[in-house]
Design a protein that fits this description.
By secondary structure, the protein is mostly helical. The chain folds into three domains: 75 residues, no CATH class; 101 residues; 184 residues, hpI Integrase, Chain A (Orthogonal Bundle). Strands 5-6-7 form a three-stranded antiparallel β-sheet. The protein has a two-stranded antiparallel sheet with strand order 1-2. Strands 3-4 form a two-stranded antiparallel ribbon. A hairpin with a 2-residue loop joins strand 1 and strand 2. The longest helix is centred in the last third of the chain and has 25 residues. It is elongated and about 105 Å long.
Length: 380
């Protein structure tokens, strides 16, 4: 047995081997020369002693308190290290259980990307070093991924690596993102905002044929987003009558989980009334009263958004607008039109890209309703 002693307290741990007492040298505390399997037993003692010494050194380096009993437990019942693949799968399921389907899907995309790159993910996080990351980056570029897409892949991988460190599946000194900078994987995208006159052209657009009747819904949804704080398409899809309180639109931003409350513009009210239906609890015909799972709702919203963006692009080309139209352009244009009208940047931020969207919403939420109401009077 190994005896571990600390502060006068002892803990014994058997090695799973026993020999006749006549073969044991009690003075030297080791098997006698004539002991059967002596070399193997000595090697076992040496290896087990080394395990305890290594664990002891690690605890001292980390400045962690321990007892003789807890030291034995750490050696005999070590925390199971998870592979990269195992932790990714676990994280994806956690996100799905938390109903964070968008993030779960993003993690799944990175999981499959890493799987295609490495061939398997039966590796430990300590094997992901700077050289490994550089090879992964080169592989992503070689298959045609753009700079910002590569950045998203690496930020997700880094987030899962941080979880691995937090759960002690990998030692902090193995962390490769100190020398490999993910921040370099970013490329500024062209601003997707229009002038006030461009926006008015879209809002006043009239389809030229019956085949384009679906385009009126496209124009109305674009206009509604513009008039109502650049509300995201997904948030529009889930709006109900309950979101209208005292002539204000109040809703929880699905991405940031923040409460947004804005004055209902007259033009927005007209659009709502146009699509109001007693057969549909939602304000707009994107979702319906038909019961759908979250996954089905997500797919439905994507399909409609795809059609809306296709129509917006066609409208933009017909109007000879300087940029490709998407639902996001309404959101960006809302901010820039207010900014160009002299609205203080502390109320609404001009940059509505991914890096500042959350900040913009925080600023909108933090001001009194009267200030936001006054600011939004500049939209027309």
């Amino acid at each position: 047995m190994l005896r571990v002693t600390k502060q006068g307290k002892r803990k014994y741990q058997g090695l799973g081997v026993s020999i006749d007492a006549k073969y044991w040298d009690f003075e030297k505390n080791q098997p006698k020369r004539n002991c059967p399997n002596r070399d193997a037993i000595l090697r076992l003692i040496t290896e087990k002693t080394k395990e305890y010494q290594e664990q002891l050194i690690e605890l001292k380096i980390e400045n962690k308190e321990f007892t003789a009993k807890s030291l034995v437990q750490k050696v005999t019942n070590p925390t199971k290290r998870k592979t990269v693949g195992e932790l990714f799968i676990e994280r994806i399921q956690e996100l799905k259980d938390a109903k964070r389907l968008g993030y779960a899907e993003s993690h799944e995309t990175v999981y499959h990307s890493l799987l295609n790159f490495n061939g398997h993910l039966d590796i430990y996080f300590s094997e992901i070093d700077k050289e490994w990351l550089q090879k992964y980056e080169a592989w992503l570029r070689n298959i045609g991924n753009k700079e910002n897409t590569i950045g998203i892949r690496f930020r997700t991988l880094r987030a899962v690596y941080n979880i691995a460190m937090e759960k002690q599946f990998v030692k902090p000194e193995c962390y490769p993102f100190r020398s490999y900078k993910v921040s370099k994987l970013h490329q500024d995208t062209a601003k997707r905002a229009l002038t006030k006159n461009d926006v008015l052209e879209i809002i006043n657009y009239q389809a030229q044929s019956k085949k384009c009747r679906y385009r009126q819904l496209t124009v109305d949804l674009f206009a509604f987003s513009y008039f109502m704080g650049g509300i995201n398409f997904k948030d529009i899809a889930f709006l109900k009558e309950d979101n209208i309180i005292d002539n204000r639109l109040s809703y929880i931003r699905r991405k940031t989980k923040q409460l947004i409350t804005l004055p209902l513009q007259a033009q927005a009210i007209e659009i709502i009334n146009k699509y109001k239906s007693t057969n549909n609890p939602y304000l707009f015909p994107i979702l319906s009263s038909q019961p759908l799972t979250e996954s089905q709702q997500r797919n439905r919203i994507r399909q409609v958004a795809k059609s809306i963006n296709r129509n917006l692009k066609a409208i933009g080309e017909e109007l000879n607008l300087p940029i490709d139209l998407t639902t996001y352009v309404a959101r960006h244009s809302f901010a820039t039109v207010l900014k160009r009208s002299g609205v203080n940047t502390s109320i609404i931020c001009e940059a509505m890209g991914h890096s500042s969207e959350k900040v913009t919403q925080i600023y909108l939420d933090s001001f009194e309703n009267e200030q936001v109401d006054a600011a939004m009077s500049n939209l027309l």
